Amino acid sequence: MSLVQCPTPAGSSGAGHLLDRMPDSAAAAGEDRIGALPDDIIRFVLSFLPSRESVCTCVLARRWRNLWKSVPTVLIYDEEEARFVTSLLLLRDRVPLHEFVFTSFLNESETPQDVEMWLRYAASCHVRVLRLDVESYDTTARLRIPNMTLVCQHLTALYFSSLKLGGGTLDFSSCPVLEKLQMVNCEIHAEKILCQSLRRLVTYMCIFDGYARTRISCPSLTALELSENVGLTPFLESMPSLVTAFVEFDREWSEREELYDHCLDGGYYVGCGEWDCIPCHHIDREGDGCVLLDGLCGATKLTLISAPKMIICTRDFKWRHIFCNLKTLHLSEWCLAADFSGLVYFLQHSPILERLTIQLSYYRQQPIDRKDETYGPRKQFLVSKNLKVVKIKHRKNDERIHQIVMILVSLGVPPENINCSDCINF
Predict the structure, then answer these.
(1) What is the pTM (predicted TM-score) of this model?
(2) First to last CA, the chain
(3) What is d(CA 317, CA 307) in angstroms, rounded to the nearest whole number?
(4) C-alpha span between 216 and 209 (Å, rounded)
């Protein structure tokens, strides 16, 4: 497939002869203001066009014949086939790339080998922003990339969508200035996500491997967002620079065929221990390690949302991590189980907490079950003197509100600091 089909006049063997007879300027009459611009400015303007449209400018005039080859972006959208992309990269000059974007509906023309070749090409051109979005009407369809090893000294931002990523470790240690990694609707089959330079990590609607817990080893992270993911909760290694964290896992747990980290037959802090219980099987196999809180304890702003029976976070309580920087905290109703154990834990271990929000479920109205095991702090304590705002978001007439207010007041929160006015009225 040719990159562009130029009009070929009768008796001519190709578009090139047509271009040879064209004037240096595309203007037929009058002042050619675009033609007066330097080549670098024209390339900059072309960098905003999809690559096919950029290539088509070669028919405008002899001067434009090769300008598209050195445009600092490759932007591939929707209808382009793999043959076009490969031809484009073969004919393009090896000049540095600011951005490489491939957004297309999943089809048989793209193979993992093609995509890996395109990624290697982008890396060889010192790409700084790399985006690979494979869309599909079927949200479960994903393009499998078995080997995601990138060696790129200039890459700063990396975006993936609808990919199936494997290969043991997602190792980005050979991308020394990579600062942002975002994965949307991806299947992640990796033992570890590794990057020393990464500052922001986002996984949204991703599926983490259900057979081995992924370790996230990104010590320079300042922002972490794990949103609406399913599967085994990742193991977060120490993140001493972390400022903001949003962690939401398996909120719609009751609709899953497999419950992963939700043990419905065990207590609040320990699982049932049965061999056929998936969460307990993984916990026993992994040993006694801190999964979440070790990585989150340095955050200044923390949102932690999970299903009520998710046991991973509560199992981490025994490590007694102190959230010494935490000023803003948002929790869902999991913190109310076992006699307010999660809520008490964070209030007890957040000495400078200023703002607390408790988000109750919109679809459940039931009193707190006090038959669960209790966390039982050994001594009475008062909450941080900095805690000025407590907001409880709830459904109208929720029976749990009175209990929550009473426990907060008993821990030293002034009633005037508790805001229950944001009711959700269905």
Answers:
(1) 0.83
(2) 57
(3) 17
(4) 13
